Amino acid sequence: MSSFPAEKPFSNGSPEVAVRRFGSTRLGAPVDEYTLTNGSGVSTSILTWGGIVRTLIAPDRNGKPADVVLGFDSLEPYEDRHPYFGTITGRFANRIARGTFTLNGERYTLAINNGPNHLHGGIDGFDRTVWKARSESTDDAAKVILSHTSPDGDEGYPGEVQAQVTYTLSNDNSLRIDYEATTSKPTPINLTNHSYFNLAGHDSGDVLEQELMIDAAQIVPVDETQIPTGVLASVAGTPFDFTKFHPIGERIAQVHGGYDHTFVVSGDQPGLRLIAKALDRNSGRSLEVLTTEPGVQLYTGNFLDGSLSGKRGARYHKHAGFCLETQHFPDSVNQPNFPSTILRPGETYRQTTVYRLGVSE
Ligand code: BGC
Predict the structure, then answer these.
(1) Closest Cα to atom 2, ligand 1: which residue?
(2) Any residues with CB less than 8 A from the CB of 256 and at least 6 apart, and which?
(3) pTM
(4) Are 289 and 275 in contact (CB under 8 A)?
(5) CA distance 58 to 200
(6) Which of 179, 166, 180 is nearest to 138 (CA)?
(7) Cα dihedral sign, 73-49-173-211
(8) Whose CA is nearest to atom 4 of ligand 1?
(9) How far is the CA of 119 from the centre of ligand 1 (A)?
(10) Is the CB of 291 under 6 A from ligand 1?
(11) How far away, in angstroms, is 212 Cα from ligand 1 center?
């Protein structure tokens, strides 16, 4: 289990925000780190590079803190290619088949960066940009508000997009992420956060014994290049049935390559609802996920292979973390039966997701 990184002591009082220079990009742009601390022993640090959640520190049932997200100590490995540790992914999370789509009769060609497909917004997506930032704190929350203008044609997408992402850490131990975007031309948009959680601590080994529940009766099956086939499949009687708590590793060997699938979140009421819970029975730490989105991608760090040197020298091996990326379905732009991801001028895209930490006895 990890020890408490000594960057920010626990506060016993009001939420607060501290900012420090984290580094400079190779092109010389300064990158800052905003550390939000609440009044109940939880803190998180957010980088202006990629809007990355770099740390998330939470106590266990005995009050012992651990950093429960994977990441790095310095900017350099984040500026190198990495598996989207903690990033905002956009303009479009997950894959677009062959990096192409047609909108209003016009065909668009996007950057290809994942086999034959476009992944997570392309080669230099929202995860690889320096966001503008400002912070605020109130009696019950600390927040950092990030903004970014993506030019018309960025990675092949139409329209200039103004994006804003607000991270709010409140005294109830929720890290809330509010995404907003507007556009100058019709364009697809699908934003998420790509944090890799390990509730025993980022350096504690794999997450296979941690338990997960997802309120989803269906998944989005994919082909061999991880593009949806267009039909939804029931989870009943399959290793994808997480409607009750199961250890992540219990049935993972039956899923070729490990979990990397979108779950169709049950319930069609609009608004924020609880869709998943994760639990580490040893430490007692738990994580609840609430979202406005129709889907959540469960990704179990299948491509991690121990080659990355993470925070405090930690080696991140296969399944060292799990991601619960709340989003619309992959390739929605090419799938007429999936909920639309098209944003038009005059509209505002909004998505809200809350990661709520807790402890159980
Ligand atoms: C994708 C994986 C991909 C990972 C990037 C996930 O959202 O579904 O296939 O490898 O992101 O590291």
Answers:
(1) 260
(2) none
(3) 0.95
(4) yes
(5) 10
(6) 166
(7) negative
(8) 83
(9) 8
(10) no
(11) 19
pLDDT of 40 reads 86
Q: Which alpha helices (H) appear in the chain, and where do they start and end?
A: 75-79
Cβ of 299 less than 6 Å from ligand 1? yes
* Distance between CA atoms of residues 130 and 191, nearest Å: 16
Distance CA 333, CA 343 (A): 11
Only one residue has tokens 């499949």, namely 233
Closest residue CA from atom 9 of ligand 1: 260
Q: Is the CB of 260 under 6 A from ligand 1?
A: yes
- Ligand 1 site, residue 83, Cβ cutoff 6 A: yes
Which of 12, 32, 10, 13 minimizes the C-alpha distance to 21? 32
259, 260, 304, 319, best to mutate for ligand 1 pocket (most atoms within 8 Å of CB) = 260
Check residue 266 and give its pLDDT: 85
Distance of alpha carbon 191 from alpha carbon 178, whole angstroms: 10
The count of other CB atoms within 10 Å of the CB of residue 149 is 11
pLDDT at position 162 is 98
292 residue type, one letter: T
| Opening angle at CA 231, ends 228 and 236, nearest 5 | 105
Residue 323 CA to ligand 1 center (angstroms) comes to 9
Give the tokens for residue 85.
Answer: 């540790």
Q: Give the C-alpha separation, 293 to 312, whole Å.
A: 34
Contact 152/184 with Cβ under 8 angstroms?
A: yes
pLDDT at 270: 80
257 Cβ inside 6 Å of ligand 1? no
Tell me, what's the pLDDT at 12?
60
For the chain, residues with pLDDT lower than 70 are 1-12
Q: Under the phi-then-psi rule, with left for phi > 0, alpha for psi from -120 to 50, and beta for the rest, what region is 271? A: left
How big is the chain, counted in residues?
Answer: 361
Residue 134 is encoded by which pair of tokens?
């400002």
Give the per-residue pLDDT at 41: 87
